[in-house]
Amino acid sequence: MSSDDIPIGRRVARWRVRRSMTQQMLADRVRRSKSWVDKVERGARTLDRYSVIQEVAHVLRVDPEVLLGQPQATPVGTPDGVDDIRAALARYDIPRVPPRTDELRRQVGHAWLTYQHAHYGQLVRVLPGLLDAAQGVRSPELLVQAYRITSSLLVKLGEADLAWLAADRAMSAAGDDPLLAATATISIAQALRACNRDHLALTATLSAANRLLPDPARPRDHEVDGPFEDQITRQPHDQRGEGRGTGTGGGGVARQRSAGEWAVGGTLLVQAALAAAGCGEHRRADELTERAAGVAARLRGYDDPHRTSFGPVAVELARVLVAAQRGDAVEALRRHSTVVRREAWRRLPAEYRGAYLVDVARAYLQVGDLRGAARALVDADSIAPGEVRCRPLARTVIADVARAQPAPAGVARLATVVGLTR
User: Fold this and answer.
1) Would you place residue 328 in the very low, low, confident or very high pLDDT band (cuts 50, 70, 90)?
2) Domain 79-196, what architecture?
3) How far from 15 is each of 114, 329, 388, CA to CA, in Å?
């Protein structure tokens, strides 16, 4: 068995023993039960939440990727295999022997982790089979997730039209489930923005957000009375997002929203703000980020079953990008220098941080700070090499910085690595 085939639970056990910890010691330090640690190590409980893996890795004093297996060398350039994904999206036949739902759930969880670590070359190879398997299992939630992962990856690889197709498939798979439809709208917005259709992205996200969350400017009779905090349920939610219905019923009965619903709604508001900035509606973008901040400030910790990474730090990153979009790079970089010092920044997935830093490099270019741009690109490469080496957008930013005479050392090296010449 190769190191890549070893279950993550067994890696946790090995590193725990190396650190001379008992299961109880590890449990205490990650604020879990001994039974939880035992189940993880035996493989009886799946460890597929990036934030939890980070926490365990921190206690064991290893990089999270060590627990996930040694990654292969990051490829340079757009990974081969997009045509295989296109072919998978064009297939409508259902596999004769579909996988078990629990096995597909495990595969989807692994695909999300692969995406969050920016291992795009590996994900390109996995997705065609995952899409085929998801069509054979009668689970709208897993099918929506598979299409969302596919759409997100295709946006990264510069295949915006194909990304929109995958996102549209996610919306169709969501059916009448309003929360699944809202998560699919996140992917719709990302794909539309990548297609430079910001107005359409703004319309889609605002409609979905207003269906999911109360509009503070227009309180409705069926909304829960009392403080905003009291409208967020504290009940745990599993990976299937149970209890996700958003309707009030025929009689307009008041109900509480789950933390997952608020997180999805907040993410839609962030996407709407970015879309508004992209089409020049800067005041509206600021209003939407303020509304998203109101959601984030009152949302307490939860296990992020819908893979949004939403929270106060996500809103602050959006403020940086909105400021850069309106041409106020000085304000954007001032905010940037503050937000990256927060502990919550380091807890974001590598993909999220790497993509953000590439955008920040563009803000540095706006003010003519080539060294700052170079530093952001080098930091992005150290956090998520796939973001810098596989994405056409990042290659363009590297080329812009590398044109300087002389080019900053770090970017000169990156330009060589990705095959660019000055």
Assistant:
1) very high
2) Alpha Horseshoe (1.25)
3) 21, 44, 30
Closest by CA position to 380, among listed 405, 363, 367, 368: 363
3-class secondary structure, 265: helix
Those residues whose C-beta lies under 8 Å from the C-beta of residue 136, and which sit 6 or more positions away, are 94, 95, 97, 98, 99
Q: What are phi and psi of 418, to 5 degrees?
A: -90, 5
Checking if the pLDDT of 253 tops 70, the result is no
What is the pTM assigned to this prediction? 0.77
d(CA 224, CA 222): 6
Domain with CATH 1.10.260.40 in the chain: 3-68
Check pLDDT > 80 for residue 351. Answer: yes
Structure tokens at 129: 């089979």
pLDDT tens for residues 146-155?
Answer: 999 999 999 9
Quick one: which of 306, 323, 309, 407 has its CA closest to 362?
323
What 3-state DSSP class applies to 257?
strand
> Which CATH number does 3-68 carry?
1.10.260.40
Q: How far apart are CA 370 and CA 109, in angstroms?
A: 39
The token pair at 288 is 């939407």
Distance CA 112, CA 68 (A): 12
Q: Are 357 and 377 in contact (CB under 8 A)?
A: yes
Q: Compute CA 268 distance to the chain's CA centroid, rounded to the nearest angstrom.
A: 13
Average of pLDDT values for 11-40?
A: 91
The ranges of the chain annotated as CATH 1.25.40 are: 79-196
Residue indicated by tokens 């799946």: 46
- Give the CA angle between residues 277, 213, 271 to the nearest 5°: 25
Give the helix, strand, coil percentages of the chain, each rounded to 5: 65, 0, 35
The pair of structure tokens assigned to 274 is 């970015």
Do 108 and 145 form a contact (C-beta atoms < 8 A)?
yes
Q: Do 345 and 353 contact (CB within 8 A), yes or no?
A: yes
